[in-house]
Amino acid sequence: MRHSATCFITALCMGMVFLPLSVMPSHAAGVAGGSTGAAHAADMAMRMQPAEQQAVLQARPAPTPGTGGAGLLAWPGVPRLGLPVLRMPDFAVAPDDGNARPLLPWLALAATWDPDLARRAGNARARAEWQQARAVLRVGGVDLLPSGRLQAGEDQVLAGSMAGMIGAGLLAGHVLPVFGSVVREEHARADGAVPDRTTPVPAARLASQGLLGVAMALETARGGAILCGGLAPCQTVTGLGGMVHDVWRFPGMIMALPGGAGAIRDKDIAPTLAAVAAGVDMEQVAPGEDGHDVLGAALRQAVREGSVKPAQVQAMVMHILASFYMSGSLDHPPAFASAHEGAQSASADTLVADVEAQGAVLLQNENKVVPFDPAWGPVLMLVRPALRPAAEKLADALRHAGLNVTLSVTTAGAGAPGTLPPATAQAARTLVLSDSNDDNQMISTLAEMGGHVAVVLVADDPDRQMPWLDTVDSVVQAWAWRNEYAQPLAALLSGQQDFSGHLPVTLTGGFYPPGMADADYRAFARAHVVPLFPFGYGLSTHGHVTLGDLRVVRDGNHVSANFSITNPDDTPVRAVPQLYVEMPDDLPGAARRLAGWRSVMVAPGHTVRLSVPFSLRLVGQWNPAGGNWNVAAGDYTLSLGLSSVMMVRHATLHLPALHVPGVLDSTPTPAVTAE
Q1: Sorted alphabetically, which SUPFAM superfamilies does this protein's record hold (predicted)?
Q2: Which of 130, 219, 352, 494 is the most buried (most CB within 10 A)?
Q3: Alpha-carbon distance 421 to 86, whole Å?
């Protein structure tokens, strides 16, 4: 068999990517489903009749009363062979945030930099999907095409690892993660620039961009599937199937969301041939698409005419089954009878609260206004009418934490001098909840009155303008508001818990250097421009840590960076030391990039020794001819710090010329020792 799963499974048995020992998934012995699952996929595909093989290439509408039928699709299975029907959402339909399975706060989760929490999030979503009798879930934050501004942040290493840990949690719950994003999840740039996604681009050109994040997600999860068509038609990425199956040796499937693989017009089967050539294995079909879907009647016609060989169809089926066997959903399908609508569970509420508690980022804290001290007197909370419900919940939580809080709601259009509520003139401390640039004049006017002002940003906007930054005391990035945030945010603002979040995106203030195609930290570094707040940045109110000497050791195609972290203060501190690697100046792409990180709680007065491994593919150039990464000889700089611009330790690693295999890989598990 040309597309062997053996190499993939063997490589993934080596260990996990960038993850502490405590968060090793329970299925760490290999890809979920293992070599037995891969063998089952091959055997089952051969046992299917041609009509059965063609039927399982699609998931079609099949709403059933009591299971939330809107936007629900069904993969038909093969009852004759014991393969069950599996249900999944239509990935082209935006989920309803008001139902019992609200979307996780992905960007806030990425801001925790906590793989264990991401895996818990995956477990929680798996339970929620099973309640709805669904066995497949899309995980955003990574995609084939570069975006830089997706759910899980702007860096492929961070996004791929965190998305992969969500996938690991899903797989442990027998739910298949499908990695890929859709346009509605992108954060639009402040200048209105949009990526060009009309020109076909070879997969080889994307190897170190979007495809790197997808590969890391598959490695970290140890299985899953890949989504195409969410940001651009599947055929936009040429040679995708060859990269995924021949180079990566990934045995699973590439799935297209409705319309992502094209559409049939006037019985022309060219879109079908293009979809098969692009590597699409399964197609989602939305209601009303009958006759326009590319892997239905048009594929059957192509097989009859010989344009698509039966062996190609069998290989597509094999990829589909391999993904489902990875999740165990074919052996442990959710029972349709258990599907029901219901209230969100208390455990889900707790999980979302934990995400905010660890993901809220303290950006600025002049005069140490945060945390609010009850001895300093009352706090006035100021909001626009639209945020009143959120403010009331937060005010109640702050009062419960011991603060004297008064809520004041502005009138529409307030901001100019004389339009703010009279209470603001006497307030010594004011807390502003803000979700858009519409509040900027109000915040500026308030700050000019002379009191202490703290601003809490309750929206996911990397380009949020802050013209008032130099006139306010404290700024907190609390991400898009959810009611579960009230209690943890109150604990942070009152000092009952320390801030520990770090930015997964660059906060640009809405300004980019001329000609900047992306607005991520590497683009700012290449332009020699310091952004408003850099990627990886975050402050603490309780203490600080110091980083010890950085030492690096190479073992074949992997490098391990070893260092110590010390907490000299008298309170515990959760730190996120980040390792960056930079290629020699005379090589392309020399800008510093994240190689790995650790999320660790350091006890007062203690020192912890950490190890962060990474693959040398991160400093390689993709070689399409050889299907590997070429690493040039030279001196590479490794830097350790607490953001992408705050480096405190450096080491030089001299490398000979190397070739790193393109097959999916994993680095050894990092070690933690306390002194």
Answers
A1: (Trans)glycosidases (SSF51445), Beta-D-glucan exohydrolase, C-terminal domain (SSF52279)
A2: 219
A3: 56
